[in-house]
Amino acid sequence: MPLPTRAGLDAVPAYRQGRSAPAGASKLSSNESPHAPLPSVVEAVRERLDGINRYPDMSAAALRDDLAVRYAVDPALITVGAGSVEIAAQLIHAVAGEGDEVMFAWRSFEAYPSLVRIAGATPVAVPLNADHAHDLDAMLAAITSRTRLIFVCNPNNPTGTVVDADALEAFVAAVPHDVLVVIDEAYVHFDRTESRGAGIELFRRHPHVAVLHTFSKAYGLAGLRIGYAIAPAEIAENQRKVAIPFGVTDLAQTAARASLDAEEELAGRIDEVVVQRDRMQALLATAGWPAVPSQANFVWVPARERTALLEALLHDGGVITRAFPGEGIRISSGSAADIDRVEAALAASSPTPDLSVRKEATV
Ligand SMILES: *Cc1c(COP(=O)(O)O)cnc(C)c1O
Fold first, then answer.
1. Which of 41, 52, 162, 285 could link 258 by a cystine bridge, Cβ 3.0 to 4.6 Å?
2. What stretch or stretches form a coiled coil here (predicted)?
3. Nearest CA to ligand 1 atom 1
4. What is the best residue among 217, 248, 324 to mutate for testing ligand 1's pocket, by most ligand atoms within 8 Å of CB?
5. Do 244 and 327 share a domain, yes or no?
6. Which of 261, 293, 323 is the last residue of a domain?
7. Rounded mean pLDDT of 28-44?
């Protein structure tokens, strides 16, 4: 007798983690922070270690209070999860089930389609435009009476593009109020456009917007798993019903609070990641691999049929990336040493006089 399987599960691909890196290689495959954790954060976590025999505060009250003050919102509107990917799942489960549709741009965050299918709902993927950015008009046109939730990943993973603030506001205003618009701002700290970080403002101005933030990327806590949403009251209440109890550890809550206290120090690190991102973008362009202008902590090279070639070339130079065969390659921004490696790998592959001159000049 075969073991039971849930109907529809064969349509769900297992989440594919960014490639692990052999010792000594530069792991630029998962958009992690290249920096070691801040000493103040490590110390705060260490102080809580002798309490791990106890369950954490399931409501993450202290952290939610900190966030409530920062954003001047009622703490009841804030929900915390084991990574914002868990919060994304909560939001989907809170509003959509069998027969309902959840929309997102494509290509975008790889977890969206699986999370939607796991909830029993139907994913609706609207292709990005020719600039690798959200096609908001096409997304509006794709709304049906069954649409329950729309993700806008801003900046978008893996293409690094942002949605213009005015265009996003017009989009949100045009979406019917019985559809929740979730603005996933996992990479908002790396956005250097003037209109950055519009999510919370949209939340304040519109009744059907939720904002998704994570401590994994800019704050460097990917390994501890913590993220949060700010959502309308009814949505937040239903998220608490579908959340897995005690999913967020006390150590993660502690590290998140300590990180909020260390934001100035973190800002310096974020600036460094942005500098290296822009440097990598320039290197790639010089070497004949133009990337899409990025506002995130990674760049996207739409290398199409040359994707495997670029992946192999970087791999040979000790740089591990995230490749989407036939489409493109996403390279996370890293430390200066990581991007030196990218530079060397590109130079090794195309020894143009131009590049060797640059190399000598920077050694
Ligand atoms: C990395 C990422 C997340 C969430 O990561 P967590 O570690 O689960 O907080 C959410 N959205 C996007 C678009 C991401 O790239």
1. 41
2. none
3. 186
4. 217
5. no
6. 261
7. 97
